[in-house]
């Protein structure tokens, strides 16, 4: 026997919570939703966060609204499973973030005053450091940097955390010098033909690149997303130019495609003037 959906006149968040409870109902819920766990849902949570970022990158506010709804569903899904396990509820999640935001903004909700934005950032980091120290089992400054983050993002966070205690290259020039050093070490392993060591040295190169991004206050994931989009745009230009010549890329060669790539760059530059 089917039951009607929660009434539309409910507050939207209450209706969403009721919908999720219904989907997870052991008697007549959705079989797919019922078999999910925190671990199986986690990849969808990460994917939805990326889709939010993609909508922002494209400037599509209608799509952003929908993607934020999908991301909110992930929070509701995890919260429902936790409530079923007797761990916490959606209200507990909301209460925790409310308390955290008030605690981390003493200049807004308390008596603290900051002389500058940099001073405020220092205060924010000090509050976060105090919170980390209060967590049971914390033994390292790096303990709570999530392992599941994208590699470059985690590298930035690890190096940023280490920088709070002075473990940091002082200038951009120092980081660039280290980058050249690591590239040299990687090329030496390429020459030696040791792929395991090449992989390790390439990792070192990427870690230093992440440090360079942090030093320049650039999000490396944003930077590489922009470059990915640029690559797609220019390669499509190459494909279109080849199609006008009655060719496909596999009927061309590197010299021809490289010349068309340079043409794509010139067209883009001319269009930006």
From TrEMBL:
Top-level class of the enzyme under EC nomenclature: hydrolase
Reaction(s) this enzyme catalyzes, per UniProt: ATP + H2O = AMP + diphosphate + H(+)
Any one GO BP annotation for this protein: dGTP catabolic process
Keyword set, alphabetical order: Hydrolase
InterPro entries xref list: MazG-like_dom (IPR004518), NTP-PPase_MazG-like_C (IPR048011), NTP-PPase_MazG-like_N (IPR048015), NTP_PyrPHydrolase_MazG (IPR011551)
Gene3D superfamilies reported for this sequence: MazG-like
Chain ranges of the NTP pyrophosphohydrolase MazG-like domain: 36-109, 176-234
PANTHER family in UniProt: NUCLEOSIDE TRIPHOSPHATE PYROPHOSPHOHYDROLASE (PTHR30522:SF0)
Protein name: Nucleoside triphosphate pyrophosphohydrolase
């Amino acid at each position: 026997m089917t039951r009607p959906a929660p009434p539309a006149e409910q507050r939207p968040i209450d209706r969403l919570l009721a919908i999720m409870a219904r989907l997870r109902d052991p008697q007549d819920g959705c079989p797919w939703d019922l078999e999910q766990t925190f671990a199986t849902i986690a990849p969808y949570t990460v994917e939805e966060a990326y889709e939010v970022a993609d909508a922002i990158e494209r400037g599509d506010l209608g799509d952003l609204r929908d993607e934020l709804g999908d991301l909110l569903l992930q929070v509701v899904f995890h919260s429902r499973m936790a409530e079923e396990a007797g761990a916490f509820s959606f209200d507990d999640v909301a209460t925790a973030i409310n308390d955290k935001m008030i605690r981390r903004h003493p200049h807004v909700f308390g008596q603290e005053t900051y002389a500058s934005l940099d001073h405020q950032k220092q205060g924010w980091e000090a509050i976060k450091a105090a919170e980390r120290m209060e967590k049971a089992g914390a033994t390292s400054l790096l303990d709570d940097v999530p392992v599941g983050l994208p590699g470059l993002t985690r590298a930035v966070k690890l190096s940023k955390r280490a920088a709070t205690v002075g473990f940091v290259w002082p200038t951009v020039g120092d980081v660039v010098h280290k980058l050249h050093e690591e590239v040299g070490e990687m090329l030496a392993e390429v020459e030696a033909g040791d792929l395991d060591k090449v992989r390790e040295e390439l990792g070192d190169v990427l870690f230093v690149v992440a440090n360079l991004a942090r030093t320049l206050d650039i999000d490396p994931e944003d930077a590489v997303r922009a470059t990915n989009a640029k690559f797609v745009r220019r390669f499509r230009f190459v494909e279109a130019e080849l199609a006008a010549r009655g060719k496909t890329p596999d009927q061309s060669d590197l010299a021809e495609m490289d010349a068309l790539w340079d043409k794509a760059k010139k067209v883009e530059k001319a269009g930006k003037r």
